[in-house]
């Protein structure tokens, strides 16, 4: 027999179902619907409570005999096991007498055990009635005065917060039952909202112990956690959504931002990309493995933000032209990632990272039309070292490459010898280019990013030169005296210094 539901708590006529699932509302038994009272007070029915740790449930247990499932929570290792055990217990009880299974709040909100029990009961041919009740969401809405439809209310589970965390509408966060859970939620909020953002902590609504604590994101007390604690936030969005909206506001209201075009800020994009590359080059080579260098990561975080600004800026201008916006950019990227990872999102099997790269390149080539060379698509605007590496990678994928680093060492020596014999400036430029190109090839075979190696070499030179200057002015010194200071600066380097090592 199919399930019968009464979402508003009313019945079309007398029913005597085998199993009735009811909600006890968010607080005291005084707030329990009259229809629910009929089923929980009927002496002919066995009353099974999901938990007695709820005001209405505890008050009900004072007036009549009840069974609970609290022992199942203590015995199980995970929630799925608990829900399965609850369903087993309820169905076993139905064999002896009609059963009323009562849950806190509403059986339609946050009650996984109800969904499982309904499915199993229907499969067993049992008649089931579900009678709704006020949920914790209804209670919070009544207190804070939002319209879920008009205001776009969001509801989140404190034990399973979304990532990325989007807070661009009024938001209720429930299931903050333990101090560690509430502390984690507060930390997540603090990352994407200003510290002074107002927060309401609603505790034990619809009961004599009801409390509403108005605080800020940085001052949420974890000890307010409990089974009937919820948070309510209604703030200007932070994080990614906040950055998007801020950029749009700047485009409308800031004279400088409003004046820019796609072309006028290209140089900014290039500069920010190089600054990011430098910040990344300071990280240990094994990062993100090994011990994290949080100071270096702070620089990376800032530079990533500057690059993101350029993405948002360009996307905002494109949206003004009616071409695309940031959501389109993200969706095109998402589709590309899915398409180029058939071993993750499809049925292709791979055994190594090399196979992943081979599939990526094949799919990429299939996407690109009108190309006449394998070298098409390597930007000419890249730095010389990076462009050389890209060209070499393309050729290597077709098998045009050295077998290993040893012959490349020989090639570098050969190019150096030819440079030494260059008779004029034009020849020197040509031969020096060959030396650098061969050096990039050597770096590639050694597994070294040539751009990173070059940046670190520059950093080492700068650090050593500044140490030379700290010992006094360099003007007037002989070359021998400066070389002596240079060697002293090298000896002063600290082993393991991220600025100094590869």
Describe this structure in words.
The protein is α/β, with parallel strands linked by helices. The protein folds into five domains: 3-134, 3-Layer(aba) Sandwich (Cobalt-precorrin-4 Transmethylase, domain 1); 138-237, Methyltransferase, Cobalt-precorrin-4 Transmethylase, Domain 2 (2-Layer Sandwich); 240-324, Orthogonal Bundle (Helix Hairpins), CATH 1.10.287; 368-448, Helix Hairpins (Orthogonal Bundle); 453-491, no CATH class. It contains 20 helices and eleven strands. It has helices spanning 34-41, 55-63, 70-75, 79-94, 112-123, 136-144, 148-151, 179-192, 239-253, 255-259, 266-282, 294-320, 326-339, 342-345, 353-367, 384-396, 405-420, 425-446, 450-470, 479-491, and strands at 3-6, 19-23, 46-49, 67-68, 99-103, 128-131, 154-157, 171-174, 198-203, 211-216, 229-233. A six-stranded parallel sheet has the order 1-6-2-5-3-4, with helices on both faces. Strands 7-8-11-9-10 form a five-stranded mixed sheet, covered by helices on one side. Helix 19 (450-470) crosses helix 20. The longest helix is centred in the middle third of the chain and has 27 residues, at 294-320. The radius of gyration is 34 Å and the shape is elongated. The relative contact order is 0.06.
């Amino acid at each position: 027999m199919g399930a019968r539901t009464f979402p508003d708590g009313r019945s079309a006529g007398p029913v005597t179902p085998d199993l009735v699932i009811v909600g006890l509302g968010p607080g005291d038994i005084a707030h329990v619907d009259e229809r629910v009272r009929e089923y929980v007070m009927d002496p002919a029915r066995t009353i099974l409570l999901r938990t007695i740790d709820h005001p209405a449930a505890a008050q009900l247990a004072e007036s009549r005999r009840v069974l609970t499932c609290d022992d199942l929570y203590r015995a199980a290792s995970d929630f799925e096991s608990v829900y399965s055990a609850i369903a087993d217990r309820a169905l076993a009880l139905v064999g002896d007498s009609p059963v009323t299974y009562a849950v806190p709040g509403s059986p339609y909100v946050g009650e996984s055990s109800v969904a499982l029990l309904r499915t199993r009961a229907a499969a067993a041919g049992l008649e089931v009635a579900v009678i709704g009740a006020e949920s914790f969401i209804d209670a919070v809405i009544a207190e804070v005065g939002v319209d879920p439809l008009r205001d776009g209310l969001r509801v989140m589970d404190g034990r399973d917060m979304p990532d990325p965390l989007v807070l661009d509408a009024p938001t209720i966060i429930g299931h903050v039952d333990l101090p560690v859970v509430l502390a984690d939620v507060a930390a997540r909020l603090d990352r994407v909202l200003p510290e002074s953002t107002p927060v309401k902590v609603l505790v034990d609504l619809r009961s004599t112990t009801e409390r509403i604590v108005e605080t800020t994101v940085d001052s949420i007390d974890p000890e307010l956690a409990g089974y009937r604690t919820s948070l309510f936030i209604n703030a200007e969005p932070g994080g990614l959504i906040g950055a998007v909206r801020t950029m749009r506001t700047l485009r409308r209201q800031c004279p400088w931002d409003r004046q820019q075009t796609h072309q006028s800020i290209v140089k900014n994009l290039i500069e920010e990309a190089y600054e990011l590359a430098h910040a990344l080059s300071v990280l240990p080579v094994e990062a993100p493995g090994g011990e994290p260098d949080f100071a270096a990561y702070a620089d990376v975080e800032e530079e990533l933000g500057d690059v993101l600004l350029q993405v948002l800026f360009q996307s905002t201008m494109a949206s003004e032209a009616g071409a695309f916006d940031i959501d389109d950019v993200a969706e095109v990227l998402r589709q590309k990632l899915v398409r180029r990872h058939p071993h993750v999102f499809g049925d292709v099997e791979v055994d190594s990272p090399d196979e992943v790269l081979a599939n990526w390149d094949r799919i990429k080539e299939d996407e690109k039309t009108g190309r006449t060379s394998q070298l098409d698509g390597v930007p000419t605007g890249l730095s010389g070292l990076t462009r050389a590496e890209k060209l070499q990678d393309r050729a290597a994928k077709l098998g045009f490459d050295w077998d290993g680093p040893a012959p490349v060492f020989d090639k570098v020596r050969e190019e150096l010898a030819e440079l030494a014999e260059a008779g004029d400036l034009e020849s020197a430029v040509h031969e020096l280019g060959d030396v650098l190109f061969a050096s990039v090839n050597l770096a590639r075979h050694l597994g070294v990013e040539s751009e990173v190696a070059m940046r670190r070499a520059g950093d080492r030179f700068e650090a050593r030169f500044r140490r030379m200057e700290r010992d006094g002015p360099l003007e007037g010194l002989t070359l021998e005296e400066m070389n002596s200071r240079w060697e002293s600066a090298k000896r002063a380097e600290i082993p393991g210094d991220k600025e100094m090592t590869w």
